[in-house]
Amino acid sequence: MEYTRHLLEECGLGADRLAMYDIPASEAPKWVAAVMEMTEKAKALGPNPINPIWGPEALVPEEQLELAVQK
Amino acid sequence: MIIAERKPFAEIKTMVAPFEKILIVGCGTCVAVCLAGGEKEVGLLASQLKLAFGQEGKHPKIGEITVERQCDQEFIQPLSDTVADYDAVISMACGAGVQFLGALPEMKPVFPGVDTTFIGVNEEAGYYTERCRACHQCYLGVTGGICPQTMCPKGLLNGPCGGNVQGMCEVNPDRACAWCEIYAKLEREGRLGQIEPILPLHPYGRSVTPGTVIHPAYKRRYVAHE
Questions:
Q1: How many domains does chain A have?
Q2: How many angstroms separate the first and last alpha carbons of chain A?
Q3: Contacts of A62 in chain B (CB under 8 A)
C-alpha cells in the first residue's frame, strides 16, 4: 500500500489519491466517514491531472482501433 | 544472486524522455527475486511512464517483455526482432544484462532501469544482504563459511582489528564482528587450529577487470581468446 502510494507520487499523480481503510462489516458509520474523507480529499486535490487529455481522442491510433473493435 | 534496486523514477523518465517508442525488458532471474526488475516491476514501470508522460500530453508507445535471463545469449537473441519496432530500450537486468543486451547487433540505445548493488541472499521477503565480493579467491573453507572479505567492513583476512567491542563491529556497532563470528563458529566445530596459519596476501592481481573464466572442458574451443 505504502509502496503503491510512493509509485503514484513518483509519477506525479500524488500519493494522497490512494488510501486504505480497515473497516469491519458491522461498522457502517466508519465506512461513510471514510468515503466522505476521501471525497473531500479528492475535491481538494482537484481533477486527475491526466483527465483533460484522457478522452478517446487522446488515445494513440492503435488504442482507438481497439476501442472501435470493442464497440 | 545479484541484488539490485529500481532506479528512481525521475532518473529513468529523464533518460527515455526523448524517445517515442520505448521497450522495457525485464529479467526473470535474480532481479525478479529481489523485486527490482522482473515481469511485475516491468509492468509497474510501464504504467508509471504512461501516467507521467500522459500528464505532459505525450503518449509514447511503451512495450513490455521479460526474458528468462539477460546474461545469456540464448534468451536475448530473440529480442533482436522485437526491438526493431522501438526507439529505445530500458533493461531491468543487472549491469551485466544491460551490457549484454546492448551489445546485440541492431540494438537500439539501452538504458538501465535498476542500480546493481551486490551479490547477496534473500534473508526474508524484501530483505537482502550482501555475502560475496566475487574476489576470485574463496577462503570460506578456512574461515568457517563466513567471508571476512565481505562480512568485515575492513575486509581483514587474518583476524579482527582492534576495534571490536564485546564482539560487535566498530564500523557498524549493530553488527557482530565477522572475525568474532568466525572464531565462535570454528570453536563450536572444533576447527580453531585452521585459522592459525597466516593467509597469504589476497591475489588482487586476479581481480583485474573485466574478468574472464573459461571452463576447462572448453579450453580448446576458446584457446584463441586466452
A1: 1
A2: 35
A3: 61
Name the residue of chain B whose CA is nearest to A6's CA: B9
Q: What ipTM is given for this predicted complex?
A: 0.72
Given strand B88-91, what is the order of strands in its sheet? B61-67, B21-27, B88-91, B110-112
Q: Give this prediction's pTM.
A: 0.84
CA distances from B83 to A31, B16, B22, B88 (A): 48, 15, 9, 8
pLDDT tens sequence across B133-186: 999 999 999 999 999 999 999 999 999 999 999 999 999 999 999 999 999 999
CA distance B99 to B78: 16
- CB distance from A25 to chain B under 8 Å? no
Least Cα distance to B130 among B97, B70, B72, B175 occurs for B175
Question: pLDDT digits over B21-74, tens only?
Answer: 999 999 999 999 999 999 999 999 999 999 999 888 899 999 999 999 999 999
pLDDT, tens digit, 9 for 90 and up, residues B70-101:
999 999 999 999 999 999 999 999 999 999 99
Q: Across the strands, what pairs with B66?
A: B26
DSSP H or E segment with residue B32 = helix B30-33
Select from B51, B56, B61 the residue whose CB has the most chain A CBs within 10 Å, as the one to mutate to test that interface. Answer: B51
**pLDDT given at position B209:** 87
A22 is in which domain, residue-wise?
Answer: 2-70
SS3 per residue for B115-180: EEEEEEEEEECCEEEEEECCCCCCCCCCCCCCCHHHHCCCCCCCCCCCCCECCECCCCCCCECHHH
Domains assigned to chain B = 2-119 (3.40.50.2300), 137-197 (no CATH)
User: A36 is written with which cell numbers?
Assistant: 466522505
